[in-house]
Write a structure and sequence with these properties.
heterodimer, A: 186 residues, alpha+beta, Alpha-Beta Plaits, five-stranded antiparallel β-sheet, 5 helices, 9 strands, 27% helix, elongated, B: 583 residues, alpha/beta, Rossmann fold, six-stranded parallel β-sheet, 24 helices, 20 strands, globular
């Protein structure tokens, strides 16, 4: 277990001590929270963020263990080191929260997001959209004579880059799932 | 052993199995089945309050004076929303409560039914945890879990919302199973950190203990261990408003309360110390004053059961997550095994410095022959009730600070006040809860007339249950603390900080069936207080005091501990624009 892994009920090994104290630098962290899948648990987590004035850049949640009734919530958040530490400690206080891991400090992790992107266009633009989709390994999941819907999976910046390229080619709508993430190794 | 019974019966059975003897509540449509079960038994005493907020504060008073969780039973909708202030109060002061609310039947939830409110939604941010129970089979288990969550780790209020059909339906009753819960907060502190603290304590030249409500919540054993450690090391000790009584006010190392209206010697010791040992307190803004000037030259240790308290506002050097009692026990063990060392010479010099600060006599005030000064009234109350089996509750404001300054507390669980939330209207119902738990003790609610009016309906409860609570009202016909701030901060424009239509408190007492006493001459005060104490029944004591007295010492907003105001001299313009936005 990493020294930076915040075990519920204890934060002796705080990442806080490794960085400048009360620094003003805004950091972006990906935090995964294993929670008991009971009614209202997501509202508790979101309510904590809104009630204490923390940011949510992205949030995903789904049940990951049907027999154990456990769900994993992945939150991407931004804040100063002190705020990030508070977020983790406050999450740990929520009674149905089993575990809080800060993937940004815990070690290398895999972050993936899925997006579906509707591109409307004709002629060269349509051909170019299809060619770029191929480069990004996006799949065509719906097509009409003047539109495509692409499905793309990847790190959030890859999806940003794909959307930026599609915009001049007729991007009309985009839906993103938000980040799902896990620690690499064991 | 499981038995089949209705949900309503299960509630009563679970309360019995959890050792509950008293419930504070108010009936209504959605809890009638539970009230029916209460009617049919004699083990649990139900105290009928006059307003649901009163029920929650009474349960808080009960919990804080006994160390046991307080239990509340109210109906759906307005019953639950009226409980919200009390829940928030208990959350901020970490008081264990189990609040049961009725709810409309499950099949009507979401239909805007009569007296329906989204109780779990409304109370989610003001409880430690809450549950809506939709199946009778899960009710008993949830009730037991609720007691476990309320009392384990950092205590707090929990709420169970029980729809009426769940109360009527039959289900299997499960008796309590200890250790069944997944919620198991850490109690033992890390030995490495504890050893580091002991090492710091052995060499510190100017150490100070800063203790809080965590010592009291940890139980009487924690106070005993604290006393042993403080007296063996000779280290001075101060406490927050919440922690008064964990170390005796008569103890030789006692500095008095610290913070915004704390004692000069306590705040100066915090400012000048080289080792600050926070035991179960949370660096609240009433304590720290200006953060960048808070105890600037000290190494800081923090013992707290809640990891989120560590480094929340003040960065500490030695964080110890654990229960105060367990940690203090380990500190004593390690300190003794390392030879009971302290830097005795340096501490003697430090104590000398502290007695110089004490010689300023920061609590001195200009007394009057003709008008009762509120400080004098509290001095007399202290003198005349010292040594009695005495419990004090307060409302919120100047009188609360004066009570903390002028009354001495020798033991924990004797002082009930709304610290974190600052709830006016707390004291009267709290005094009732305390008196229910300690029927033979002297229970005094030190109040201001404005706060007192906020929950005065509870006098009806006191009279009904023959609870001889003493309502000691320091009546200045003003919202004293608001007036003080308006004087210091808003150019003496006293916007809406007085009441032009106060009731005649003596007649009010008589209308309730209690005794009323009025006193306005300092010469009559002692006799009047004795009359109040000796009367066998509830008393409303209308003590007419100086109207424009200010509460000192005071650290103005945005100032540091060593920038205290000691008296009326030069208070103009002391709070600068930066501090003015603070509360």
């Amino acid at each position: 277990m990493s020294a930076l892994h915040i075990k519920k009920g204890s934060t002796k090994h705080s990442a806080y001590n490794l960085r400048p104290n009360f620094s003003d630098v805004q950091e972006r962290h990906t935090i995964t929270i294993l929670v008991e899948n009971e009614p209202g648990v997501l509202a508790r987590v979101i309510g904590l963020f809104s009630g204490r004035g923390y940011n949510i850049d992205s949030l995903t949640v789904a049940e990951v263990d049907h027999t154990g009734h456990l769900s994993r919530i992945t939150i991407v958040t931004t804040g100063t080191p002190q705020v990030i530490e508070q977020i983790k400690a406050q999450l740990g206080r929520i009674v149905p929260v089993h575990d809080v891991t800060d993937l940004t400090v815990a070690g290398p992790s895999v972050e993936r997001e899925l997006a579906i992107v509707k591109v409307v266009g004709e002629g060269d633009k349509r051909v170019e959209a299809l060619r770029l989709a191929d480069i990004f390994r996006a799949k065509v999941v719906d097509s009409t004579l003047n539109s495509f819907i692409f499905e793309i999976t990847g790190a959030p910046d890859k999806i940003d880059a794909f959307a930026d390229l599609m915009r001049p080619l007729g991007l009309s709508k985009i839906a993103r799932t938000g980040v799902a993430a896990l620690l690499r190794g064991e | 052993m499981t038995r089949e019974m209705t949900g309503a019966k299960m509630v009563v059975q679970a309360l019995k199995d959890q050792g509950v003897d008293t419930v504070f509540g108010y009936p209504g449509g959605a809890v009638l089945p539970i009230y029916d079960e209460i009617f049919l038994q004699n083990d649990i005493r139900h105290i009928l309050v006059r307003h649901e907020q009163g029920a929650v504060h009474a349960a808080e008073g009960y919990a804080r004076s006994t160390g046991k969780p307080g239990v509340v039973l109210v109906t759906s909708g307005p019953g639950a929303t009226n409980a919200v202030t009390g829940l928030t109060d208990a959350l901020l002061d970490s008081i264990p409560l189990v609040v049961l609310t009725g709810q409309v039947p499950t099949f009507m939830i979401g239909s805007d039914a009569f007296q329906e409110a989204d109780t779990v939604g409304i109370t989610r941010p003001c409880t430690k945890h809450n549950w809506l129970v939709k199946e009778t089979d899960k009710l008993a288990e949830t009730l037991h879990e609720a007691f476990h969550v309320a009392t384990s780790g950092r205590p707090g209020p929990v709420l169970i919302d029980i729809p009426k059909d769940v109360q009527f339906a039959n289900g299997e009753y499960q008796p309590p199973k200890p250790a069944a819960s997944a919620y198991q907060p850490q109690l033992k502190g890390d030995m490495e950190e504890i050893t580091e603290l002991v090492a710091a304590l052995e060499t510190a030249e100017r150490p100070v203990f800063y203790t809080g409500g965590g010592v009291i919540n940890s139980g009487p054993g924690a106070s005993q261990l604290l006393r042993e450690l403080v007296d063996a090391t000779g280290i001075p000790i101060t406490s927050t408003l919440m922690g008064l009584g964990s170390y005796p006010a008569s103890g030789k190392n006692w500095l008095g309360m610290l913070g915004m209206h704390g004692l000069y010697e306590a705040n100066m010791a915090m400012h000048g110390c080289d080792l600050l040992i926070n035991v179960g307190a949370r660096f609240d803004d009433r304590i720290t004053g200006r953060l960048d000037a808070f105890s600037p030259n000290s190494k800081k240790a923090h013992i707290d059961i809640d990891p989120s308290s560590i480094n929340k506002v003040v960065r500490v050097d030695i964080p110890i997550v654990g229960d105060v009692g367990h940690v203090l026990e380990d500190i004593l063990k390690v300190w003794k095994s390392r030879g009971r060392k302290t830097n005795a010479d340096a501490i003697a010099t430090w104590q000398k410095q502290i007695s110089d600060w004490r010689a300023i006599r920061c609590l001195d005030f200009k007394n009057s022959e003709t008008t009762i000064k509120p400080q004098y009234a509290l001095q007399r109350l202290e003198e005349l009730t010292k040594g009695m089996d005495r419990y004090i509750t307060t409302e919120v404001g100047q009188h609360q600070m004066w009570a903390a300054q002028y009354l001495g507390f020798e033991d924990p669980n004797r002082w009930m006040t709304s610290g974190g939330l600052g709830t006016m209207g707390y004291g009267t119902p709290a005094s009732i809860g305390v008196q229910v738990a300690h029927p033979d003790a002297l229970v005094v609610n030190v109040a201001g007339e404005a706060s007192w009016l906020m929950n005065m309906q509870e006098m009806g409860t006191a009279v009904q249950y023959r609870l001889p609570v003493k309502q000691f009202i320091l009546n200045n016909e003003r919202l004293g603390m608001v007036r003080q701030w308006q004087e210091l901060l808003h150019g003496e424009r006293y916007s809406h900080s007085w009441s032009e239509a106060l009731p005649d408190f003596v007649k009010l007492a008589e209308a309730f069936g209690a005794k009323g006493i009025i006193c306005k001459d300092p010469k009559d005060l002692d006799d009047a207080i004795m009359e109040m104490i000796e009367y066998d029944g509830p008393v409303i004591f209308d003590c007419l005091v100086e109207k424009h007295e200010n509460c000192f010492p005071m650290i103005p907003s945005g100032k540091a501990h060593n920038e205290m105001l000691l008296g009326e001299a030069e208070t103009q313009g002391v709070i600068q624009s930066g501090g003015a936005v603070l509360v």
